[in-house]
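Cross-posting from the modeling subforum.

Setting up a comparison between two proteins and wanted a second pair of eyes on the formatting. Protein 1 (sequence, then structure tokens):
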Amino acid sequence: MAKYPHSTESYTEGFFYLNGMFYEGTGINGRSAVMVIDPKTGRSVQRRDLPAEYFGEGMSTGAEYL
């Protein structure tokens, strides 16, 4: 078991681990996003914000797409 840093400013709606990175989808009205997070630092190394009219909920990977 391990403990990893995580933002307290978002609500996790989807999460998985792949190739040494955490993938997280957040759901916040007007501020949902999909992020790739370095587990060692808890910092986002890549982020894609969803348009404000969309609410992020759940995510998975299939082939080369999230």
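Protein 2 (same layout):
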Amino acid sequence: MRVRRALPLTLLVGGLAACVSDRPPTGPEPPASGNSVAIKNFAFGRPNLSVPSGTTVTWTNQDDVAHTVTADDGTTFDHAIDPGQTFQFTAGTPGTYTYFCRFHPFMKGTLTVTTP
């Protein structure tokens, strides 16, 4: 009789223990915040970013190959970023600045600079 009562409790405790893990969570990453753009899996993590003039934006290359952050106009910014490195740009004149990676032209983004 005692074995029958203990079995459901053992299964319940064992089942709950299986729900607890020290592994990192899986699934989508939380939305990025602030003024940073991760470059990961050959994509700009925040392809559309809006910041007030005077804000410093940081791009971080999390891939294992180099990328660039190159303004379509060819003059506003053009910077190569090696793996694990960053590039910072302080937004100036309000406007919309489209950009891409020269090494991987399918990678595109837009930086919108607003009046503070």
